[in-house]
Amino acid sequence: MTKSLHYRACHLCEAICGLAIETETLADGETQIRSIKGDPQDSFSRGHICPKAVALQDIQNDPDRIRQPLRRIGQQWQAIAWDEAFELVAERLSAIQAEHGQNAVAVYQGNPSVHNYGLMTHSNYFLGQLKTRNRYSATSVDQLPHHLTSHLMYGHGLLIPIPDIDHTDFMLILGGNPLASNGSIMTVPDVEKRLKAIQARGGKLVVVDPRRSETAAIADQHLFVRPGSDAALLLALLNTLFEEGLTRASHLPVEGLEQVRAAIAEFTAEAMSARCGVPAASIRQLARDFAAADKAVCYGRMGVSTQAFGTLCQWLVQLINLVTGNLDRAGGALCTTPAVDLVASTSGGHFNRWQSRVSGLPEYGGELPVSALAEEMLTPGEGQIRALVTVAGNPVLSTPNGRQLERALDGLDFMLSVDFYINETTRYADLILPPTAPLEHDHYDTTFNVFAVRNVTRFNEAILAKPEGALHDWEIFVGLAKAFAARNGLELKPTVAPEQMIDMGLRFGPYGDRSEHKLSLAALRDHPHGLDLGPLQPNLAARLKTPSKTVQAAPEQLLADLARFAGQEQPAAHELLLIGRRHVRSNNSWMHNYHRLVKGKPRHQLLMNPADLASRGLVDGQRVQVRSRVGSIEVEVAASDEVMAGVVSLPHGWGHARPGVQLDIARAQPGASANDLTDERRLDALSGNAVLNGVPVEVVAA
């Protein structure tokens, strides 16, 4: 028996914590994982890990994980050879497009795609050949407002300023819970220590959330805000900054600030207070405190993106940082200088060049809002979706009105899933192609280094050998591309392995051949604990991608959306509003099949304020029915003063006990899917992003 110690980053969430993994090779040649611990030599994560990282061995050993291609025959699954599977896909998709047009095939890419560089580098090698406008992804579930705002203001959807958390004196968080998420569009391992360090150096942490979240519990101040009304609070804050002369000049070239000031003049703290549920005096004091801090940063995450005015919220977050002089400033909000620079090497994107067939929703970066996916399948006529390719996604549990999507999937002519589970979505597939498990392939974080709170880089070697007969995800897409091209007489451009692409990206990047660092793949292999390339630095002026090379403070689309905001009908006083919540042991819908992550106190319940329980004649622990326009669920209710009155909270991603799901541990867990209640008709009308927070519901005894 031989023991070995390996180092790599965990890529299950955005924090990319460094790991020390001990393996043991047995006499028969089999290699097993003996332990997974935090790597104290990783300067970014500093030895910190969360429970998800330890569960990497559970993913590796999960008996429910698919290890060979499967074809569905009736309700049974049968093994199929790789080449035969590739030919089947090429045959079926080609036939459907030939009969019904290119847009009759749709694509949905799930959140894990961005955590796996083989999918990032090679999925379009095949998917691009489909030439369909029906492209969808998890982006329009939880983060599209971020990208659209940066596209409109800075000229590129990935040019997103990140909180300089290690140097700020005042951090204002709206709709984010980094103690549970480990950061989100803010790659920040060891976040609790970093937040407490702000306080230790005399700074202040303020959290705005309808729930007293784990992050709010350690904050200096927590303000309850009515779900879906953060835009009102942010407008009031920005208005106060202008009105009370609390602004500071910026070194950045900016156009449109006077237009902004005039456009928001009516949205005073007093006018917005009733709408957001925060006293006007508290709003004004928060604006004064933020402006008085030497270095401050405003950060809004999922809770403010997944509401009817999510794009307005993200625009206002950027403006608050800008007008207080904290945009592109140390201790404020800064853009990274990543070793593989996706901003420099990709176009700035496009918006609303075409719209969805049924509801006319706008595309962004070639993708349509996923809330339109089901209706595009269910609505007859030219352009109706008749086939679907899903990649590392489970939209039945992850997108609005999951029950409607189930009906749509059941009526497809053909469905392919690249996934290693038979889950709530892939059970409808005709063919499932499983890639290797996380520890069986190498990895480079192309995306999360772009959002990191320090400039960092590392290459992660595979820990375990690729099993005989298995394929990496990028190899699956190469196989699909070759089969589809051959059937349709297309000429494929040559491709190389993902690691070679990363090597080129490193060499041509800001720390590559023309710099003192001379970064390359070989150089990173010499640094198994990763490389710290220094703190974030002001760089936005030089990186702006707008045609004028200026910050566009007043994009016409956002100014126009203020009229929609002003005219929005307000919720009825008695109405309950549904919000989600995160947990550090969970990651969307796919990490509930591992015992070490689902053990402990139950966390599937609907949280409800005791006053709301009493007024409805309900009691703690009771089974209740929760109803919305689109459907109803049954779940246990838990009394909690964590949520403000008028708000109920249900975690996302549960509800696995559906026919055909082959996830034994997950199926045994209680709980229901929050997306059986969310409404595909409730959208941020500007971006098309789904509304998952502030959904009106009724709660009655079951």
Automatic annotation (TrEMBL):
<dbReference type="InterPro" id="IPR050123">
    <property type="entry name" value="Prok_molybdopt-oxidoreductase"/>
</dbReference>
<keyword id="KW-0411">Iron-sulfur</keyword>
<protein>
    <submittedName>
        <fullName>Anaerobic selenocysteine-containing dehydrogenase</fullName>
    </submittedName>
</protein>
<dbReference type="GO" id="GO:0046872">
    <property type="term" value="F:metal ion binding"/>
</dbReference>
<dbReference type="InterPro" id="IPR006656">
    <property type="entry name" value="Mopterin_OxRdtase"/>
</dbReference>
<dbReference type="GO" id="GO:1990204">
    <property type="term" value="C:oxidoreductase complex"/>
</dbReference>
<feature type="domain" description="4Fe-4S Mo/W bis-MGD-type">
    <location>
        <begin position="3"/>
        <end position="62"/>
    </location>
</feature>
<dbReference type="GO" id="GO:0016491">
    <property type="term" value="F:oxidoreductase activity"/>
</dbReference>
<keyword id="KW-0408">Iron</keyword>
<dbReference type="GO" id="GO:0045333">
    <property type="term" value="P:cellular respiration"/>
</dbReference>
<dbReference type="InterPro" id="IPR006657">
    <property type="entry name" value="MoPterin_dinucl-bd_dom"/>
</dbReference>
<keyword id="KW-0560">Oxidoreductase</keyword>
<keyword id="KW-0004">4Fe-4S</keyword>
<dbReference type="GO" id="GO:0051539">
    <property type="term" value="F:4 iron, 4 sulfur cluster binding"/>
</dbReference>
<dbReference type="InterPro" id="IPR006963">
    <property type="entry name" value="Mopterin_OxRdtase_4Fe-4S_dom"/>
</dbReference>
<keyword id="KW-0479">Metal-binding</keyword>
<dbReference type="Pfam" id="PF00384">
    <property type="entry name" value="Molybdopterin"/>
</dbReference>
<dbReference type="Pfam" id="PF01568">
    <property type="entry name" value="Molydop_binding"/>
</dbReference>
<dbReference type="GO" id="GO:0016020">
    <property type="term" value="C:membrane"/>
</dbReference>
<dbReference type="GO" id="GO:0043546">
    <property type="term" value="F:molybdopterin cofactor binding"/>
</dbReference>
